Amino acid sequence: MSSKKIPVAIIGASGYTGLELLKLLITHPIFEIKYIGNSEGGIRVEELHPSLKGVLSQEVLKSDASKIAKVVDLAFLALPHKTAMGFASQLLENGVKVVDLSADYRLELDTYEKHYCKHIDKKNLPNAVYGLPEFYRDEIKNSSLVANPGCYPTAALLSLLPFCDLIDENYPIFIDAKSGVSGAGKKCTQKTHFVSIDENIFAYNPLMHRHEPEIKEKMKKQNNKNFDINFVPHLLPIVRGEMVDSYMLLKDENIEPLKLLREFYKDEKFIRIYDKPVDMKTPSGTNFCDIFAKVVGKKLYLNSTIDNILRGSSSQAVVNANIMFGFCEDLGIPTIAYVP
């Protein structure tokens, strides 16, 4: 592996995913942070994120795509939807590879515009590769634009996709998902205010969440079937972590789900299959996705957990970047959990 450093940018460094990208790339042996940007600039990164004091001292600049393109080979976009595609299109024109953590390139055009907004980069949308490495590794290798999956779709799809051909599509799939408050972003809202979320739990956007069509679209791509996905997310009074429980009916009773999963993922570094239900703490601080499955008759229960802002966002983004540049995908990726 070449020891030559590759200059990278983190655009949208103010939020939680931006901070996680900074933490990962500070210690990455090849990627070197050359540009840190946010909407305003005029501050140093250790002031923006006091936890980096004594670790990284670098100026945060007002994000400018033309200036970014002159100094980096790769840009991570931790920006809101619509804003991200405006930057991505300019960077791609100038030969900069992009890993986009927003939703702007995850979906087909009609699906995106139905659930988000008018797409302003139709030129590059068909060239974007969905960044779920276990399923799109070969495409990611040859891509200049990777659309990092949403956190809920990551945990849901990694458990669901191995069973796509076995699920009875005549019956709905119910997905009950739960996430820590960091998944709601850094900006405080009435729901994420301490007095609202402490010792509390509640559903939000049930059956209308934007990650539902993302899950449905990627499952259809797997076996060309339109599954009836019913997705309900919940907010938990914890900082980080995510659990997805999925319920469905199978075509056949004679299935050993754990055996199937172990065989399916036998060569995957970041998938762990458990004999008992999984918890949110065990993969916290890592890029692992932990999965459990159980069958009773034709009923299939899938249980998966991830760190929502690492495997569900920033560490998965760095894995995708590693693949894009031909490196081992676990280069600089955390595997030691935040426990106890």
Verbal overview:
The structure is a single chain. The protein has 340 residues and is α/β, with parallel strands linked by helices. The chain folds into 2 domains: 6-127, NAD(P)-binding Rossmann-like Domain (Rossmann fold); 152-308, 2-Layer Sandwich (Dihydrodipicolinate Reductase, domain 2), CATH 3.30.360. It is built from 11 helices and 15 strands. An 8-stranded mixed β-sheet has the order 3-4-2-1-5-6-8-7, sandwiched between helices. Strands 10-11-9-12-15-14-13 form a 7-stranded mixed β-sheet. Helix 4 (83-93) links the parallel strand 5 and strand 6 (97-100). It is globular and about 60 Å long.
How large, in whole angstroms, is the Cα Rg?
20 Å
Mean pLDDT: 96
> By CATH's scheme, which homologous superfamily of the largest domain applies?
Dihydrodipicolinate Reductase, domain 2
* CATH fold type of the largest domain: Dihydrodipicolinate Reductase, domain 2
Q: DSSP helix count?
A: 11
Helix content: 25-40%
Question: Would you tell me the structural class of the helices and strands?
Answer: alpha/beta
How do the helices and strands follow one another from N- to C-terminus? Answer: EHEEHEHEHEHEHEHEHEHEEHEEEH
